[in-house]
User: Fold this.
Amino acid sequence: MFRAFDWQDLIPLAKGAWLTIQLCAMSGILGVIFGLILGIARTSPSRIARWISTIYISCVRGIPILVIIFFIFFGIPLLFPGLELDKFTSAVIALTCFAAAYVAEIVRGSIEAVSRGQSEAADALGLNYWAKLRYVVMPQARKIMVPPGVGFIIGLVKDSSLVTVTGLVELTHAGNIVTNLTGDPIMTFLTVAAMYFVICYSISLLGRLYEKRTGIQVDPLKLPEPASV
Amino acid sequence: MTVIFVENLNKKFGPNHVLKGVDCHIREREVVCVIGPSGSGKSTFLRCMNGLESITSGSIVINKHRLDDSKTNINLVRQEAGMVFQHFNLFPHLKVIDNVMLAPLKVAKANKDEARAKAEMLLAKVGLAEKMEAFPGSLSGGQMQRVAIARALAMDPKIMLFDEPTSALDPEIVGEVLTVMKDLANEGMTMVVVTHEMGFAREVADRVLFMDQGLIVEEGSPDEIFSSPRNARTQGFLSKVL
Assistant:
């Protein structure tokens, strides 16, 4: 009853890959937005903001992503009976919740890595908190957060394979279906792996391109030229 | 007219009592140099004057703004008191000219052409007109510190605070920064300078404060302090550094 793996099987896999891309693009973008807000809140002068974001980040980081996926997928419809979530939306929500916490920690670390002198110089010029963040701290923190941020998004693409448990036909799930049709898990999952690889490698190339384009203009190791009086 | 009133200023970092009741009045156009051994509290004293350090007790009034009053908008005080740091703290992601223009544009909401004209004028004044489009990372320490002075001046402060402005510089380029500071003093800027440059203090200061262990131990004209110090601790310190 099995048939050989052939080019036609690439179609459901490509559809799955496209869904994985959409899933990760949406949860990645939303995760970065909420992560930025949470990360800034985590370093803000407001105690309440710090408190809320710290609790959120600690909770999410202490829960396996699979549990978050199950909780959103099965829990939300029970908690809010009127609310109908399709599989894709609940997967996006689950991955966004997960991503926001990790991105927030990357943002916090990057903000804290900008030297205290920078913040003091901005204070001494009379810049208020938001102006300091926008014009002095974040432009420098951004360069620090890009490499770990790109690393995290690549991790998110791979972790997104876990939403296969909800029955959403993303790339891994599509691989399962094709295996059941063809009985050829080797060719199928080699193809699936190659597709994941292409997605992840593209993200890492984009990240490197972005780093190059926004790179620090000055070589920090360059020796100062002799002073002219 | 007195523009800085410091009365019974106390500052504690946890159990560490850094300032133990500092009293000091500084008049308009006065140049005051603060000298003393490391750990005597002179930098902390200076940093309290623009709110970079909170005050444990006592009072500071800068141009009628009370720093110990929580209703005071500290950013207004900071616009009137420019600060120059030991490690320059230029913004490395901004060009020299943008470093100088940032506060006028974003704090004073000046228009761009005016802010630029002013920044060009200030950079010319500190001798760096040709470095306007450079990034701070390509400048020498002395050049960076002169940019930092121009940046602080861009808000038209009435007072300039200098926190060991030449301590991070190579000896042969200390002079270029001190020259800019001397010009500023001659123009009548009110200045408080924490420094180890005794020659500068002697030549430029109207008054020298000697601090030790969180207190102003002795103060007087440069001549009084350097030629005939009365306090034993001042004598001991000066005998080591002069």
In short: The first helix of chain A runs from residue 10 to 42.
